[in-house]
Design goal:
With 204 residues, the chain is mostly helical. The protein contains 7 helices and no strands. The longest helix is centred in the middle third of the chain and has 43 residues.
Length: 204
Amino acid sequence: QESMTSLTVTFILRGAFSPFVHPMATSITGMALAWALLHAGTALGRLALSASGWLGAVLLHALWNLLAGLPTSEWFLAYLMIEVPLFTAWLAFLLRLSRLDARSIRIGLGPYARTGWILPGEIDLVTDEAAKKAARAWAKAGGPRATRALEEFLVALAALGLDAAIMNRRGPQTARIAKDRELLASAASKRAEFLALVAGGGTR
């Protein structure tokens, strides 16, 4: 009976609670890297932000390991008082970061829409979740190839918008401009592909 209780507690701690902690800790580094890339104005600033993200991930994981050594009753209290607020703050920050990225993409793609390279409505496909969901549902009529082409189209436009936003802050960069030409060509190709597939019912 005692071993079964211990197994149950271990399963709850590792199977039910721990999965929330690991993505939170490991994603901190990725979010710091993205923030540094988009918002830091100097190489030193980008390095400092990236390092702080890594340190934050280490500290969050260390906190989890520290709490795991507490007696079960104290652990649950610590989890509710410490880990749950941290997890809530992490989710809020993710949503905030997503909105900021969407805004950067929208601003970055603006000139492409004004010059006719993309349609204004296509900016919504990249930055608005409802529009993106509707586009994915529509593309299913063209089969898996159309769905895949739409996803690649969205990725290309998102990267194009973020690159433009970065260059708005840091000035033109030759390598990034060359890459953006490739992204624009890829987006045009993928657009033509999924439009043709949907129009043909996925038979092309």
